[in-house]
Amino acid sequence: xxxxxxxxxxxxxxxxxxxxxxxxxxxxxxxxxxxxxxxxxxxxxxxxxxxxxxxxxxxxxxxxxxxxxxxxxxxxxxxxxxxxxxxxxxxxxxxxxxxxxxxxxxxxxxxxxxxxxxxxx
Length: 121
Hints:
- This protein is α/β, with parallel strands linked by helices.
- It has one domain (8-120): Response regulator (Rossmann fold), CATH 3.40.50.2300.
- It is 45% helix and 21% strand.
- The protein has helices at 11-23, 34-43, 60-70, 88-94, 108-120, and strands spanning 3-7, 27-31, 48-52, 76-80, 99-103.
- A 5-stranded parallel β-sheet has the order 2-1-3-4-5, with helices on both faces.
- Helix 2 runs parallel beside helix 3.
- The mean pLDDT is 90.
């Protein structure tokens, strides 16, 4: 069982993501924003991060950057309904090792497949 930090500012989606992670026998830890996720990550060993990219305050890329400073090999799955393939920051992150991207909306099975691929890498 792995501890999965799940971050999304949409409460219904955060609940759904948490339920999907639990169904795979992993331990989900929820945060509604990047700032809350940092507080949680300071107190809890995290094995993988699933985060929305666009959130108020700290975005998913900023969160990932901060977490990777102390956990260089942390697997990260970015999720977003908005993805600008022309944005340099987006492409820089997506091409890094142990990083995945899943466009919203997605079926629960796609989340599970991406999560397991990241954990296996």
